[in-house]
Amino acid sequence: GLGDVTGLPNHTLALRHLGAALKAGAFDAKVYEALRTVALRELKAATVEEVVRLAEMAPPADERGRVAIAEVFIRAGSPERASSTLADASTGAGQRMLAIALLANSETRDRGGALYSATLASADSTLLEEFLLDARWLADVQEASLWSTLPWMQVRDRLRSFWQKRALTSAVTVSERLATHFQRVNHALDE
Predict the structure, then answer these.
(1) CA–CA separation, 92 and 139 (whole Å)
(2) Which of 47, 163, 56, 146 is nearest to 100 (CA)?
(3) DSSP string, 127-177
(4) How many angstroms separate the CA atoms of 187 and 89, rounded?
(5) 86 backbone dihedrals φ, ψ, rounded to 5°
(6) Higher pLDDT pick, 171 / 28
(7) I want to staple 102 with a disulfide (CB 3.0 to 4.6 A). Which of 8, 38, 108, 187 is the partner?
(8) DSSP for residue 184
(9) Nearest-5° angle of CA 118, CA 119, CA 125?
(10) Is residue 172 packed enough to be buried (19+ CB in 10 Å), middle (13-18) or exposed (0-12)?
(11) Running DSSP on this structure, what letter comes out for residue 44?
């Protein structure tokens, strides 16, 4: 399909394919998720900027597409664009990504931390997977092993404690700890 870029030999061809889909008006959330995949897999500034340009040419109408593009905006160093893309987010995935965007700005950091914590507190098992991916960079082997054996509701509680403990250890608020974490992850992905 138009959103399947896995069989294309390189990212340039994938971007052309997706750009053509956007220009033709044949796009849906899968196309935006494919754009996100290309941008995050390639991680070159030029590729991310090309994805941003394509997304601005045909902004996603549904929230799933907006979440995918917001993540690219964050990777491109534009958390404000990500925030405005998800200003009316209503799904857990949208709220999580909006929280991450808000955490990147010192003026909205506390709001982002509160939103991240509230979204985690109400996460279902599917959304919890995204929160686990957020923590995987810091979790030790013992923590990660434990999480894989517990029921998802207990994992959700453990994740909240995980971030609180990391904040206490760093002598900062949970919002500040989350902001630092996502900033470091973005920097590591740039290297």
Answers:
(1) 23
(2) 163
(3) HHHHHHHHHTTT--HHHHHHHHHS-HHHHHHHHHHHHHHHHHHHTS-HHHH
(4) 26
(5) -110, 20
(6) 171
(7) 108
(8) H
(9) 130
(10) middle
(11) -
